[in-house]
Amino acid sequence: SSGINAEWSLRPGVNAVACRPCPKHQYNSAEGSVQCMKCPDTAFTWGTGTASFADCIGPIIEVCSEEGMNGTCHVYYDDNLWINTTVRSVNVIRGEFDLFEKTNLRARFDTLSEEDGPHNVAELETIGALESFAPVLNDVFCSLDKGWKFHGSVRTQSKSGKACINWRKTPLAHKAEPNHYCQNPDGTNLQAKPFCYISETETEECDIPACVWDMACFTGVGVHYRGSTRTTDHGRNCQNWNRDWPHIHGYHSPKYSWAGVGDHTNCRNPDYEGKPWCYTTNLLHRWEYCAIPRCSRDDFEFYKF
């Protein structure tokens, strides 16, 4: 590449063939390497030219064959549907994970976060064995439902690069976690993404990615779906959840606010059945399932930037 300093082109984070920084969500940690490596599917980077795998922002969990994080240990960055060895201790290094008692994410489960520290499996509250696990991405590494439940410990500066001050020094100190991380602790705040205070009176939005799963598609039976689809599989419009016309029902907020119902017509699933649905505006058709695809890695990324 004419005009490019050869020493610069071989630095970590730079593709030596193209003489340009590795693109977002890739890294190059080996000096002189000609290949950019992709971060795990569950991870991303803040910018281009990432020089270390450690700078891929995503979930990390370690499991060990003996208690006290001893014995043979393995580190994972994604789900594991069948752990083919006995696990007696576990530590979530970054993010949150759901830990299941059976393979394929079945049966009872516990949720552990990086704040919980190492645990022996026998001492966990719900499960008696650990045979599969999956990371929690929504509201931890990406923002869902306007970000007001976002609690990830991933960003301490605003979109423009200004340092976030501790929330204890802000007008929202009574609602926010006392740290420097981007949040959206005010449920009535209309900002569409987590933000932070860069002074005691000034706020700026953070560049936390938006969640795709449970926004553009649904997981499980769609209880956590927070997207904006408002038509059914048969093309009928949805009734407002706060109204009883044309169909009287009992799913009024705030009692069912946990399910995302409220003053809107978006499809939701407050009864844990099937997939997201709604009452229709057609007097002859009380309710129908909605035209929302199921999430899959082949069709949907985890994050939207």
Question: What's the SSE blueprint?
Answer:
Layout: H1 6-9, E1 14-15, E2 20-21, E3 26-27, E4 37-38, E5 60-66, E6 70-76, E7 89-94, E8 96-102, E9 106-113, E10 119-120, E11 132-136, E12 195-197, E13 203-205, E14 210-211, E15 277-279, E16 287-289, E17 303-304
Antiparallel strand pairs: 1-2, 3-4, 5-6, 5-7, 7-10, 8-9, 8-11, 12-13, 14-17, 15-16
In short:
By secondary structure, the protein is mainly β. The protein is built from one helix and 17 strands. The radius of gyration is 22 Å and the shape is globular.
Mean pLDDT across every amino acid position: 91
Ends distance: 30 Å
Instruction: Count helical runs.
Output: 1
| Strand arrangement, major sheet | 6-5-7-10
Fraction in beta strands: 15-25%
Residues in helix, %: under 10%
Shape: globular
Per DSSP E runs of 2 or more residues, the count of β-strands stands at 17
Return the string of H and E elements.
HEEEEEEEEEEEEEEEEE
Query: Main β-sheet: number of strands, strand sense, barrel status?
Result: 4 strands, antiparallel
Radius of gyration: 22 Å
pLDDT < 50 stretches: 1-10
Secondary structure class reads mainly beta
How would you explain this protein's 3D organization?
The protein is an all-beta fold and 305 residues long. Helices cover 1% and strands 22% of the residues. It has one helix at residues 6-9, and strands spanning 14-15, 20-21, 26-27, 37-38, 60-66, 70-76, 89-94, 96-102, 106-113, 119-120, 132-136, 195-197, 203-205, 210-211, 277-279, 287-289, 303-304. The strands form 7 sheets. A 4-stranded antiparallel β-sheet has the order 6-5-7-10, with no helix packed on it. The protein is globular, with a radius of gyration of 22 Å. Mean pLDDT is 91; it is low at 1-10.
